[in-house]
Amino acid sequence: MRGICKIVGSFLFLLTTLFVNARTINVGKSRALKSIQSAVNISENGDTILVDPGLYKEGGIIIQKSIVLKGINYPVIDGELKHEILFIKGKNIIIDGFRLQNTGRSELKEIGAIMIYDSYQISAINNIVDNANFGITLQNSKKCTVKNNSITAYGKSEVQSGNGIHCWKSDSLLIIGNKIAGHRDGIYFEFVTNSLVWRNISRKNVRYGIHFMFSNHDTYIGNIFEENESGVAVMYTKFIYMYNNYFLNNWGGAAYGILLKDITDSEISGNVFTRNTSALHMEACSRINLYKNSFTNNGFAIKIQASCDNNDFTQNNFKGNTFDIGTNGSLVLNTFNGNYWDKYEGYDLNHDNVGDVPYHPVSMYSMIIESNPAALMLFRSLIVSLLDKSEKLLPGITPENLKDERPLMRPLRL
Amino acid sequence: MNPDKMKKLLKYVVADIIQNKIVLVYTALLLIISLSVFNLENSAAKGLLSLLNIILILVPLICIIFSTIYMYNSAEFIELLVSQPLKRRTIWLSLFCGLATSLSIAYFIGVGIPILIYHADATGFIMIITGLFLTVVFVSIALLSASLTRDKAKGIGLSISFWLYFSLIFDALVLFLLFQFQDYPLENIMVALSFLNPIGLSRVQILLQMDISALMGYTGAIFRDFFGNSAGIILSYVGLTAWVIVPLLISLRKFKSKDL
Lengths: 414, 260
Fold this sequence. Notes:
The structure holds two protein chains of two kinds. By secondary structure, chain A is mainly beta. Chain A contains four helices and 38 strands. Chain B has one domain. Chain B is built from twelve helices and no strands. Chain B is globular, with a radius of gyration of 19 Å.
């Protein structure tokens, strides 16, 4: 809600400034002004520049005034594989409805379709960014909105491609409803705080669907991260809130539905993890509440390293996973109570939907595979089932304390 | 080999097996197990998992023991047939085909149809196909052990040992090997080893359907590269076919030169 209020607020603010000295400047092939840069040069704060449909081969348009740059029917601005396209430094600027394509490439500096530096209240809305190195970048900016953009690249390797939405050292950003595909990282945050990432779709990126570091107090709601080469990785951050996101079909030896490294004091709830090689991988995480998530048909639902502590897993559904939980040590400082595990074989005498014997979600064979991956070949054979059963009766290898004391008999409706 | 004679003989064998009622009981047993597995479990996928153990353990066991006992019990019938103007090859192959057909039909009714009803996807189809292969493979192995010795008790013992070896001991040996040579890259050897066990070969096929996400990990990728592409799949079914043909040919050779 706070996010929506912010958008509405910023719009109202812009409207009032427009009414003071609103002027509309038209740009087009049949108009007096043929290039966007020339229109920007003669504009003043509060003006609106309307751009007719057509192809504009202008790279490096610099905007430093508080204007609205609006495209009619998606005019194309082409960087001709040489330049960055829009360079923005200012406040109260709106970029709306353009097709930005073919930016330059560089391995030394970041070249993007929309570059926002040291700015305040910038909005990039309804743009189509195609074949850009970086899509939209924000640096050292505040209260910016990136909304309903479609950002597509055709990256082949991690080195040669840039990020879809790249944010560095910013605050109070709204990243909403964007579709990102084929970049290095779909969304990249570094030192970005108090921001909202809502309803974005990030798929088939060369590296991560979303990647953030040192970005505290951010909220991620209803995003879809699908088929990214390495899934999603987030690191070194406190106070993150992830609700109702989807992590789907991230396959590969180093692909994770989501990898959490050094994440603390956070909440992860209502997320759906389906068909990932490892759905949730946790390293050195503390005080995370994970509840009401559903883990379905993953290789490993959760891989939790012994370096994690005080994390609480409750009311999650585990269904059809090859392994529920994998770990690398016998030390367990996390709790796993009140979840539904489809592999649970206990009973419930008093019919309160809570199993009467604890469930041990770590199977012995998952520990064996951890140390000897080739042994996966024998999985589901009789000898392995017998070993697993005997281990369940007399835990020797698996951590005895890693158990669910109150496993649910029926899956939760999530 | 005369196809008409073989057809006639096949009819006799199948009729005899059905009169025997054990195959009917086997069918009913499979059907009850499959239906209850699908109805008792919360999800059809979990039911499929329980069925996996039945296919990999129970089906081979029953096929091999029933076929062995049947071969010994029909010793007199075989003697009678040999006295007729029939080739031994025809007799032996008819017996094999009769057993394989009736047990395959039993399997298809008992397990195949419930799978088609409750879980008719790629995994289900692979389970049906590999189960049928296992049925035929173990009939073939049963014929081999029946041809190796005249003594019924020894023959059944041999059959059970074969079953035990393929379903348990072989995998245990492989596991032992894996741990002894943990420091070496064993992936390719594992692929080769899996061809030495028909149950293992079937299991890998089903595994590739069922646990695909887990198999996408590092070593999984190697198995998937081999078994996951069409050449590997064809090769593993060629392997299973070899497991039908080779024991059958050996037993046929034994039977041809056997003093009855």
